[in-house]
Amino acid sequence: MPAEIFGPDFAFLPSEKILSFEEIERLVKIFVSLGVKKIRITGGEPLLRRDLPTLIERIHRIAGVEDIALTTNGTLLKKYANDLAKAGLSRVSVSLDSLNEERFFEMNGHRGKVKTVLEGIEKAAEAGLQVKINMVVQKGKNEQDIVTMAQFFKDKQHILRFIEYMDVGNSNGWKMDDVVSKKEILEQVQQISPLKPVEPNYKGEVATRFQYEDDQGEIGVISSVTDSFCSSCSRARISAEGKLYTCLFATDGTDLRELLRNGEDDAAIIQCISNVWENRTDRYSDERNEQTMEKRKKSKIEMSHIGG
Question: What is the pTM of this model?
């Protein structure tokens, strides 16, 4: 999370305002009853949540949950990988924007080391978790690392996903000029080996998949800036304090924690979620280029609050 915002004096949420494991488990059961099959634990940094493997295990036991994934910065992954795998975690996505220590340090808020993240990645793979690496590419910051990252993880046989730099939240000073496009990314990666398109793993997959023509590995590109996928989005997000968001670029959420703690039954919560979902009109990425700069200035929830 941005150090200049989340410094030592930042007032974090008190524990009583954060959903308990029991409340999260109940919400997962409700969403599963509505057709959800995949659960992803994000952050902030989810491995900072005490006893996280216990939560994974509780979710894993819920009938209908077919896949549990985790997004992490990887700094604590070496410590927890085995426990997470035993608890029922299926996959892990690790954020790593550069193999260069100086650029990594600058881009991740002056925390951690590349070596620590790489050790966590290998530990997760050894534990039997499917591993993907997420690299946000930003012009003037790390575009020179595209080929280096691609070659490194091709050799390691881990899937690398390049992510176009997005205007999530209000704190990152986003400008279109800072975006390295999907087209530019693919042109650079093909210096290693020609690429061929691969069919999505499932409807609504956010990454466009490509395989190296020598069949030695795969990459993906998440291109919500230049190649929007709003029309196929099927993701709902719940923040740590229990608000439901229907878009990564949302401004407002629906308070489910209040319903949970006011003693509402499952039917009432299901009705609330259904009303929100059936009436959603989110298409922020589609509209991005149509918006005036004034509209772009509207307050959006930070990614560190609801995850990627």
Answer: 0.85
